[in-house]
Amino acid sequence: MKRKEDNNMITASDKKWVDSVVEKITKKLEVVSERSKDKIPALTRDGVHDDRSMENVDWNIDDGINWWTNGFWGGMMWLMYHETKEERYAEIARVSEEKLDRCFTQYYGLHHDVGFMWLPTAVADYRLTKNGEARRRAMHAANLLAGRFNPVGKFIRAWNDLEGNDTRGWAIIDCLFNIPLLYWATEETNDPRYKQIAMMHADTAMEAFVRPDGSVNHIVEFDPVQGGVVKTYGGQGYAEGSSWTRGQTWALYGFVISYLHTGKQEYLDTAKRVAHYFMANIPEDGIIPVDFRQPKEPAWEDSIAAVVAACGLIEISKIVDEFEKDIYLNAAIKMLKALDESRCNFDLDNDGILQNCTGAYHDPSKHINLTYGDFYFIEAMFKLKGEEFFIW
Ligand code: GLY
Fold it and tell me: Does any domain span residue 290?
């Protein structure tokens, strides 16, 4: 892994700001973690965390225990454990990890998002504590992910068949955050197959998802038998050919992560290409829309795109030369400051932090708090502090 910590990268006044935000996060999480210690929250309703470990225990329904964001609450707890060294955070993180075992037994509800689910839980646990049970869970998840690889098309299949849709050939840009589970499995076992699959998928993503202007498609459909691109879909963005901002950030940060695990220069070059497209589109006020090509009104936002982009930009700033680094760092800080000023809730009675998160452009509910938004906000702030525990 080529990644480095840098606790000296920001100016003294930015450092003061970072310390004040980290203090607000720590105070809030101390209270909220106690309130939600038995839950696996995905979002807040009227300021209260929901619980995906309780709802919809039918394996066939994707928004219960199999929901793709179910690793993030545990991951947040591991980030806090690393920051504070308080054992209670490890205990709460393990509640999620253990509850997720039900997904392995049920099996059919799982798809490529096993990386999002078990990297912030089991892999994080194993990296921090060497817990053997956590390693077993993570290896199990890695093998499920490897089993979704299509060797002719050289892509990892995203979802299982959706109602009435044949999705055997579908891959999505978000998967760049699942394949670090495969890098981890090779790093852990020395068996090269996992990394080989991850790199073949990342190579396909560079070729088939990234457009000449540096923007990316959300969904690409390949011929599942012959390979080759069949068509693209707008997915969670405004429309086919548009520019779903969170998808841009899964690519931006995702290719950086592939570079960090492999050292392959093209991944970093691609991440920078997407980053430059993204930075050129950041509005004056630093608030990120759901899609860079959406109509001007209504001005729907997605704060999660801002925090994932910030994480990726900070990582790039640590890799590039001294004279280049501020371009990336300043863009990240601009977005994070805008969020801290007007899109964060540090009220101790409310379970969520990051506001104005949007799952998808055409979702009926927009501008809500989603737990993975809080996760990436905290990850970004800890990165700026130079003390982050790297989950990916
Ligand atoms: N990975 C799905 C999403 O970003 O909403």
Answer: yes
